[in-house]
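The records we work with from here on pair a chain with its fold. Here is one such record, which you should read through line by line:
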Amino acid sequence: MCLTVLIQYTSPHFIWMPRIALVYTCTPIHTINKKHMTEIELALQASEMSAEAIKSIAMAIAIGIGVFGPGIGIGLLVSKALESIGRNPEATKQVMTPMFIGIAAVEALAIFALLVAFVIKFA
């Protein structure tokens, strides 16, 4: 992720425009032709790129929080299954099958969180 500081030159009637904006771009700032761009075009470009940066951050937060719960759930599920197998080794078949079904169900929640994160990013 490339962040560039874009300094906008504002006139008195464009007082609402930010003076400095963080721009999400991989294009160096010196390649932007400032002579041919108006202040409104610079502000629009900064706002569009900032929205992309915010979407990227929101996607990272959504997937981070979304897989936190299923990760803990799978850990607890496997922990209790192995604990029960340790207490009663003859019940391995009766414990392993529901454990794998439970793991698949919990993992579906993590995949759903990934789907929601992609919707946030690209919608």
User: Anything to note?
Assistant: The helical segments are 39-66, 68-87, 92-122.
